[in-house]
Design brief:
This protein is of the alpha/beta class and 208 residues long. The chain has seven helices and seven strands, in the order βαβαβαβαβαβαβα. The longest helix is centred in the N-terminal third of the chain and has 15 residues. Keywords: Hydrolase.
Amino acid sequence: MRSIDIPVDTLILPGLNGSSDAHWQRHWARDNPESRVVEQHDWACPQRENWLAELERQVDMIGRDVWLVGHSLGCVLAARFAESRLAGRVRGALLVAPCDLDATESLHPCIVRFGAMPRRRLPFPSLVVGSLNDPYMPVERLRRTAAAWGSDLVDIGEAGHINVASGFGRWAAGYDFLELLKERSALGAAENGRLFSPAVAGGGLSLN
């Protein structure tokens, strides 16, 4: 398929119900003209096959390697994309506040149709940014999930779901984590799976 005219290199993946205009993902899309939000047809009742098909369509249309920036269910989508024929186009994935599907089902019964939680090691570099008090992901499960994915993990403390409701607007400090991912990617994936403190990551908790 022919590449689109705008040189997109970053795809932003919101979760259940999308990301509101005040969400950091929308801010990041506006900040960077080479970023694009993958808009799903149905944000309220996510179905894995439909969401995956749209992400594949976007990656195929762009025709170049991309970075993925997921939040919540968007992180699970990125992990599922690892099984796609186009997974080799992913340079790396920043996965912020991934949701556990069991916890999500208990909070939103009979809404999310995403199957089982993906547990395979991701074939591309990845950095998980998580919270100690995320209602969508118990911290021990967060650590197990990051380990299963082979992802580096940064814990930024009690930050809720790292969304508007927990005080995160533009979240400019989050760019530090994206830069860390890119640095780790440049070094190669051999050492992926490490646990970083916020100080090592160069980030830390910021509500800006």
